[in-house]
């Protein structure tokens, strides 16, 4: 196994910290837990006003898109910081799906028109591939018949919020399909903050973008690698909030956080969050530099899912009865963490990929 | 202002005046110390130039490229990592001038007389007594888990000087001459069959008062400097991918496919990921320190590596199948260094059991993380204001 020539930059730059502060301020003011809970039961599970502020206000939808294509020409490192904050707030916006996954697919095809539209945030895109698909794994496709598209694609994240769907077809190409040319049937998702839908194409016209396989692979790899940063935000919220609560909550005439059994559990969780931060930073940096990217993204995604799930499960347990209520936001994080653990390839799928990438072949 | 360029210039001067190829090793090391290139962050006259610590790498690279001898830092790790920073911070001018140069060149090996059979995690409860007698202190007691005691010329020692004070207040820090006739060193055989460590029996050992470090009764505070530096040096290691215990397991996996099973494969991949992530965390900590952003991550590194070493070596024994039933050598030996790579899987399995005990047990370290990093309430203390002599033991 060779050592990477240059170690990844695992820190946050001053500019990245400034970006984080700006996003966090916005989310603190406009994406509080009570509002997120209320929205999950409304007719618009997405928050269009928040999306507008993040995109038209702050220009965040175009971070990965070059300036020549109407974007900001930033890198995956900045996107990762945005995703940490969106994860920390379980923000119901299609950022990962549109500004990362769909954008990466369009970058692979270098589609100037759609890149410019997505960069502004006024158009939301969604890759019409199941949220569970791992990079490099097979995915379902639509049929091309007489130049139009047919078929049913399930578990497409943020499809209802999308204006344009990127649909892989059985002729090997990726097509841009207007959302109003298909039927989108909302599914009932475990994670209400990232809605899913079945996309039914019944003779929908599409515009050919380019070969599907490399575009989808690139999109899912970026999605998987950067999802680790969202999971970091989720896990960090769970740890921080639980520590805060256990310092306040008193039973047996003392703060519950003073009991050693609980202190050790939280210290252990802190260790895992510290590790997750290094893994997520490494993945963001590897996507930026293109160095050792497949392996680093697979390592991050193998590690991140179980940590984020455990952090939110511990948060629930350590909040006691309060953690079981609909009113307390911990369930939003548990559901997001559990759904994330299936997104863009499970930890097991990424470990299976590592068997090849790290030359640790199966029996 | 000492910058990288200036350090390169001074290193080139040293190499010109003392060509490594024709200079005696010790002469070279002494000349390097006197040129301030031993540890550049130390003060001038004590082996340094008052330069930023991160610039040491510049000197080390130039010297390594020129084939210069080093001071074999692993052999004198306790002196370099623990005794030296404490002497530097609390020592008198006379002590610094006397001890630091031969410590750094390796002419004088140091050991640490802290732990006792009755004072492990609760180190501050230690019972080795030091009683003032004229210009000397007379020391009686027993220390344990002392590496290098059989090689050492000097020891850093903490002993109880006031049994009537609460435990933290009655301790004094000394430099102990290991050649004193009252010092008896016995090998302590461990579960691996060898004896890396010693028991040290102190009987009427006389330490002159000028070998006291810090004030009488202030030894606990002085010892914090020693222990803090121990953790920094544990956290500061830089490893390549597969540089730790996972390396030999991955190698065996690749070279001997007939040993592979599905169960072992799942566990190997999981541990490989954890080892790589821990390596990245250590790298991130190193980058933080270099950028002058001391992180808390260091407190967790030892915890993480202890557990990983144990799990990985446990897997390795199983992976070896029938060979896992065997052990390379139970002969009682006195290794100078812990060598995880030169021995078989069984040795690694047994030796790594100590990783969660030595240098702070994992249980105590979890308390430290919970209290100092997360700010959770401290353990209830029933011993804080009680005179040491009245504590339960």
Automatic annotation (TrEMBL), chain A:
Q: Which family does it belong to?
A: Belongs to the acyl-CoA dehydrogenase family.
Looking at the record's lineage, which domain of life comes first? Bacteria
InterPro entries recorded for this chain?
AcylCo_DH-like_C, AcylCo_DH/oxidase_C, AcylCoA_DH/ox_N, AcylCoA_DH/ox_N_sf, AcylCoA_DH/oxidase_NM_dom_sf
SUPFAM superfamilies assigned to the protein according to its UniProt record, in alphabetical order: Acyl-CoA dehydrogenase C-terminal domain-like, Acyl-CoA dehydrogenase NM domain-like
Does the UniProt entry include the keyword Chaperone? no
Keyword field: FAD, Flavoprotein, Oxidoreductase
Which cofactor is essential here? Answer: FAD
Question: Domain Acyl-CoA dehydrogenase/oxidase C-terminal: where?
Answer: 216-354
GO MF terms, alphabetically ordered = acyl-CoA dehydrogenase activity; flavin adenine dinucleotide binding
Q: Residues of the signal sequence?
A: none
> Domain Acyl-CoA dehydrogenase/oxidase N-terminal: where?
13-106
What name goes with this protein? Acyl-CoA dehydrogenase
UniProtKB/TrEMBL annotation, chain B:
Q: Which UniProt keywords apply?
A: FAD, Flavoprotein, Oxidoreductase
Nucleotidyltransferase as UniProt keyword: no
Q: Which GO terms describe its molecular function?
A: flavin adenine dinucleotide binding; oxidoreductase activity, acting on the CH-CH group of donors
Instruction: Identify which cofactors the protein needs according to its UniProt entry.
Output: FAD
What SUPFAM superfamilies does its record include? Acyl-CoA dehydrogenase C-terminal domain-like (SSF47203), Acyl-CoA dehydrogenase NM domain-like (SSF56645)
Q: Which domain of life is it from?
A: Bacteria
What residues does the Acyl-CoA dehydrogenase/oxidase C-terminal domain cover?
217-374
One protein family per Pfam: Acyl-CoA_dh_1
Q: Where is the Acyl-CoA dehydrogenase/oxidase N-terminal domain?
A: 27-107
Q: Where is the Acyl-CoA oxidase/dehydrogenase middle domain?
A: 111-195
| GO annotation, cellular component aspect | plasma membrane
Record-stated family = Belongs to the acyl-CoA dehydrogenase family.
Q: What is this protein called?
A: Acyl-CoA dehydrogenase
List the top taxonomic levels of the source. Bacteria, Bacillati, Actinomycetota, Actinomycetes, Kitasatosporales
